[in-house]
Design goal:
Elements (H helix, E strand, L loop, with lengths): L2 H15 L12 H10 L5 H14 L3 H5 L3 H8 L5 H19 L7 H4 L7 H10 L10 H10 L8 H11 L5 H14 L18 H8 L1
Helix pairs in contact: 2-3, 5-6, 9-10, 9-11
């Protein structure tokens, strides 16, 4: 099987199985999604979705959150992982949006990376989900699934994975492919016990093909 055949097969199967794939984080605007994505680092979307309604009711805009203290934010988010660091990031993020970007979430990678708490993965989520740009956010699921099924080979880090996926996936599909890979990794291609018998792409999967030949 060629790499092109694998990509084409995987993407077509995902398109059939998950035609409406989208983020599982709840949000109503770009600021709300940025808050949620910062909170989601090493934390489940389910937990984040429990926290953001009250947090964003109290601080619905960058201007409102910029006026808050780190201690104020901590009280709303203390049940997430690393709440102290995330409270600091959220306050810094809001203040930077107000001071540098007119209270608006920017729509380019360079600007997003200047915001406290925003790394490349978070920036790419915002670009693809909010602005529908051809940005591939690589989290642990995307990194693991891409390597396991054979979309990447011996990828050394998330940036290498990102570049390989962007090179091989049609631009128009990249925002959706990001969700396909995350959801597949979350519910089927799990880290410890992948559910290969329930997998719609297994005949295109390098891991499955190797395991059946042993």
């Amino acid at each position: 099987m060629t790499l092109e055949e694998r990509y084409n097969g995987v993407l077509s199967r995902f398109a059939e199985a998950m035609p409406e794939a989208k983020t599982e984080l709840n949000y109503t605007d770009s600021f709300g999604l940025l808050v949620a994505v910062i909170l989601s680092a090493q934390c489940t979307d389910k937990r984040v979705n429990m926290i953001t309604p009250a947090l964003l009711e109290a601080y619905p805009t960058p201007e409102a959150m910029a006026e808050a203290s780190q201690e104020d934010i901590f009280e709303y988010i203390k049940s997430v992982s690393y709440p102290n660091n995330k409270a600091k990031s959220l306050v810094g993020m809001a203040r930077t949006l107000v001071s540098d970007f007119g209270g608006k979430v920017p729509d380019d990678l360079e600007s997003l990376l200047k915001i406290p708490g925003v790394g490349r993965k978070t920036a790419n989520v915002i670009l693809s989900v909010v602005f529908q740009k051809s940005a591939m956010a690589v989290d642990t699921h995307v990194f693991r699934v891409s390597e396991r099924i054979g979309l990447t080979t011996n990828s050394k880090n998330p940036l290498t994975t990102e570049k390989t996926l962007v090179e091989n996936i049609p631009q128009a599909l990249i925002p959706k492919a990001h969700h396909w890979l995350i959801l597949h990794g979350r519910y089927v291609c799990k880290a410890r016990k992948p559910e290969c018998l329930n997998c719609v792409i297994r005949d295109y999967c390098r891991f499955w093909n190797k395991s059946t030949k042993q």
